[in-house]
Amino acid sequence: MTAPPLSGDALVRLVAARVLQYPGDGFHAELPALRTTLAEAPEAPAALLAGFLDHAASLAPLDLCAEYTGTFDTRNRRCLYLTWWTDGDTRRRGLSLVRLKRIYRDFGLEFAHEELPDFLPAALEFAALREEAGTELLQEHRAGLELLRLALIEAGSPYAAVLEAVCATLPGPSPATKAEAKALARNGPPQELVGAGTVLEPFGPGLDPPTDLPWPTAPAPAPAPSAERQTT
After folding, report:
1. Domain residue extents for the chain
2. I want to staple 10 with a disulfide (CB 3.0 to 4.6 A). Which of 66, 77, 128, 138 is the partner?
3. Per-residue pLDDT of the chain (232 residues; tens, 9 = 90+)
4. 20 and 120 in contact (C-beta within 8 Å)?
5. Do residues 56 and 71 lie in contact, with contact meaning Cβ atoms separated by under 8 Å?
């Protein structure tokens, strides 16, 4: 059975997921496919991402890599790890990371990448492939996303446009100041993300993303049968 086409917001999230990863040597070769993907995305966020792609195309690969590594770090409060904004470097963060892996698995996606599961590009791909649950997950971390967006604007970084495009896929306007962003209280995990919501179909051959992405989105393995169900 063929999966329904991805929505415009989902396409924005997929492109943002790619450009928020370390660009690497092959990134410039991917630019045509990323531009093609944006052709079906909503005009305003697509324009923001297209502007970033123009900027990326104007830089040599090594310069783009240097810009990326100089932009994202915790020292300058420009961190791409969602639970860093909510938990910091505390023991509680480990529990949050385990919970994120469980959420991905509950919705049929297995996370087995070398990055941590709260890495924003991974969360964005999840929010594209499982849009309702993924939107709620991003909303849960909205304060961190908005603080990152504002920090990038303050730094004059071209990556600010990428975060603006991401936030444009979420309900309601973005906060205008850091104080407003910090006022976004975390209300706890939505019930739909812990097993009470609609069960979604696993990602498989029927869903064809507009551009190849590196995140492992294989269907989660089926649980082993319990002892009570095994026949003797």
Report:
1. 8-81+118-185
2. 128
3. 455 689 999 999 999 999 999 999 899 999 999 999 999 999 999 999 999 999 999 999 999 999 999 999 877 789 999 988 887 777 788 888 888 988 888 888 877 677 888 999 999 999 999 999 999 999 989 999 999 999 999 999 999 999 999 999 999 989 888 888 888 744 333 333 433 333 222 222 223 333 333 333 333 344 444 444 444 3
4. yes
5. no
Estimate the crossing angle of helix 160-168 against helix 8-19, to 10 degrees: 150
CA pair distance 209, 66, nearest whole angstrom: 29
Alpha-carbon span 218 to 203, nearest angstrom: 7
Confidence (pTM)? 0.77
Beta bridge pairs of residue 81: 119
